[in-house]
Amino acid sequence: MSDNTAVIAVVTIAVLVVMAMALARAILGPTLYDRILAVNMVGTKTVVFIALVGFLDGRPDFLDIALLYALINFIGTIAVLKFLRYGDLGKASEEEGDI
Amino acid sequence: MALAADIASWILMGAGALFLLIAGIGILRLPDVFTRMHAAGIGDTLGAGLILAGLMFQGGFSLVTVKLVFVLILLLMTSPTATHALAKAALAGKVKPLLAEDLEDRKSKR
Question: Which ipTM was obtained for this model?
Answer without folding.
Answer: 0.84
